[in-house]
Specification:
Blueprint: E1 3-4, H1 14-27, E2 36-41, H2 47-58, E3 62-67, H3 79-89, E4 93-98, H4 105-109, E5 114-120, H5 126-140, E6 147-151, H6 158-169, E7 173-177, E8 192-194, H7 197-203, E9 206-209, H8 223-230, H9 234-239, E10 244-245, H10 268-287
Helix pairs in contact: 1-10, 2-10, 5-6, 5-10
This protein binds phosphoric acid mono(formamide)ester.
């Protein structure tokens, strides 16, 4: 069994995973894996949870959902002991969303489970990064020398940390734009840093808007002035040369003008749809 905790775990294999996702989408032919998959989610989710569940069922896997905050982890059990219990009960693959970024994942590997990180706090979200690359490649065919701009709460974004790494492997340039306090100081995959969104959009070919993760902030923000400074308004949308993306959930009229979500240049609905095929390919990959 293999594992995908961070995007870098699949740096040599992500192309094959994307090819398989393309095959599933185009041919509608799915293998039957006959495995048992557990989805263990400690944080809320709509898209990731449901599309992993659909992906697992499409592959003929017995699929179990465990709501993390109703599991024995709330009584103090560690992730290792929880996952060991899954293993002993007969689970082959664990797809997990955890609010803990300090877990010892090297120890988890000893359990010889297939492991897929479905978002660990502010750290990584490899399936979202993969489906974002898949979705943009579907439209552009190459990302070499394309300027991809992430705008918003970069600091707290696990989507950004996985996506920027994978977009760089495709030869893209990564720009970030947000309040200075929203920009990480130590992340290596940022080619351009902007605090002015209009200048950033001039530079960008494609724009990925991110949600302010209010649940992770101690401070409060004036969301109206945020939208003026960093929101995708109709005027800014018209200036985007390529495509607009957002991993969801969208805060309408804060991240993006609500009228624009499913307009011509927006790939937001495509991202959701592609999530199932990419996650099927990820499950197949970890099962080996
Ligand atoms: N993009 C994403 O992770 O969405 P959910 O939180 O709804 O799963």
């Amino acid at each position: 069994m293999k594992y995908i905790i961070e995007a870098q775990n699949i740096k040599d294999d992500y192309k094959n995973i994307l090819e398989r996702a393309k095959f599933f989408k185009e041919k509608n032919i799915y293998p039957t894996l006959n495995k048992s998959c557990a989805l263990f989610f400690e944080e809320p989710s709509t898209r990731t949870r449901l599309s992993f569940e659909k992906a697992s069922r499409n592959l003929g896997c017995e699929t179990y959902y465990i709501q993390g905050n109703f599991s024995s982890s709330v009584k103090g059990e560690t992730l290792f002991d929880t996952f060991l219990s899954f293993k002993k009960i007969g689970i082959d693959v664990v797809i997990f969303r955890t609010s803990d970024i300090m877990f010892d994942y090297e120890a988890l590997l000893e359990l010889k489970l297939g492991l897929i990180n479905a978002g660990d706090s502010t750290h990584e979200h490899p399936s979202q990064g993969l489906l974002d690359v898949f979705t943009l490649l579907e439209k552009t065919h190459t990302l070499k020398n394309q300027n991809i701009l992430y705008v918003g709460d970069i600091y707290h974004s696990r989507v950004f940390r996985s996506g920027a790494y994978l977009f760089k492997l495709e030869g893209a340039n990564i720009g970030v734009c947000g309040y200075p306090s929203f920009i990480p100081k130590d992340y290596p995959f940022m080619d351009k840093v902007f605090t002015n969104l209009d200048e950033a959009i001039e530079w960008a070919h494609h724009v990925i808007a991110l949600r302010i993760q209010k649940e992770r902030h101690k401070e409060t923000y004036n969301l109206e002035s945020y939208f003026d400074m960093y929101g995708i308004t109709k005027e800014r949308y018209n200036k985007i040369k390529g495509f607009l993306m957002h991993p969801g959930p969208v805060n309408r009229d804060i991240d993006i003008d609500g009228d624009l979500l499913y307009k011509e240049k927006s790939l937001i609905a495509n991202q959701i749809e592609n999530g199932v095929f990419v996650r099927m390919a990820m499950i197949e990959y970890v099962v080996g």
